[in-house]
From TrEMBL:
It comes from Streptomyces pratensis (strain ATCC 33331 / IAF-45CD). ATP binds at residues 165-167, 294-297. It is found in: Cytoplasm. Belongs to the FtsA/MreB family. This is Cell shape-determining protein MreB. Forms polymers. Forms membrane-associated dynamic filaments that are essential for cell shape determination. Acts by regulating cell wall synthesis and cell elongation, and thus cell shape. A feedback loop between cell geometry and MreB localization may maintain elongated cell shape by targeting cell wall growth to regions of negative cell wall curvature. It comes from the Bacteria. Pfam families: MreB_Mbl. Keywords: ATP-binding, Cell shape, Cytoplasm, Nucleotide-binding. InterPro entries: ATPase_NBD, MreB, MreB_MamK-like.
Amino acid sequence: MTVSLEQLRRCHIAVDLGAARTRVYVKGVGLVVDEPSVAAVNMRTGSLIAVGALAEQMTGRTPAYIRVARPVSGGTVVDIDMAQRMLRHLLGEKLRRQLRRKPRLRAAACTPHDADPLAQRATVETLVGLGARRVELVDTLIAAALGCGLPVEQPTATMIMVCGAATTQIAVLSLGSIVTAVRVPIGGEAIDNAVIQHLRQHHQLVLPSQSVRPLQLALRGNGLTLNGPATTEIHGRDVVTGLARSVEVDTAAVRQAIHAPLTAVLDGLGKVLRDCPPDLVADIAESGIMMVGGSALLPGFDQMLREATGVPVNIAERPDVCSVLGLGAMLDGTVQPLSLAPVAG
Ligand SMILES: Nc1ncnc2c1ncn2[C@@H]1O[C@H](COP(=O)(O)OP(=O)(O)OP(=O)(O)O)[C@@H](O)[C@H]1O
Ligand SMILES: [Mg+2]
């Protein structure tokens, strides 16, 4: 499926439905929604109790009749009805009223590289349910590359790595199109799970999902590969007694646990480079790899890639919102016309 820049300029809103966060950009206005893709539902009445950050705070803290749902999983909308209800609430009444005034609402959405037709259909249906008459799909890799200002339209290679929550997408782009790309089903969630599993196995500690980030931050500054403070204190619940307990965790061992999922990402990176024509590999050795996506902020991830590949690695200025900002720039017409149309799927 291809979509021209001209068609994208006619769109009114750009949506990035991610496994972790939902972002919405309104043409001429900017980023209006950047919230967790979470909705809390009252199972007795079927009503929505909360969405976004508020619903995420409820995770693991709700009574049985409240279900915390994640309508997007693995980069795909898995519950169209819930995704529509979540988006409606995230947009708010005022913005929805403004959008309703558009006689033929057009929407653009990011779609993961190589998304199958069913996944694409789910994204389109979600937005059609919100009133969009037409939905244009753009490959996340193209949107993210534009969002972080990579010169994708040039006849030199640029390499981008979109590190999301559910997937990592890696591509070499040249002349406005994808030359080679892979999508690895490993992202921030798998890294968090590796940390949770490590603490459960080696310290018999159940870590609340919200506590994974502080542990990652304890590794900050030391990187995944360098030596830092030997231990850090972590609070959790004892697997056996169920009581609150804190343990001194060996940071080197946590780094080791994180390495396992990251190896799969390195494999994907190697595959893209191996499939890439030699001239373009020479360009990348000079220009390096641009990291975007929320997981690009994982402490030391860039350093690990630098050591594994030997090429410069940079993190985009606002890595988490690059994709939606790139899509938004296409709507606003502030990007150079691409020599070739962006490709979706
Ligand atoms: N400072 C940080 N350090 C480590 N990880 C982080 C940080 N900030 C965000 N993340 C991770 O980034 C992920 C979210 O990234 P992003 O918002 O790009 O995902 P997404 O677009 O919702 O997912 P996907 O594109 O895979 O559907 C989460 O897994 C989160 O744990
Ligand atoms: Mg994403």
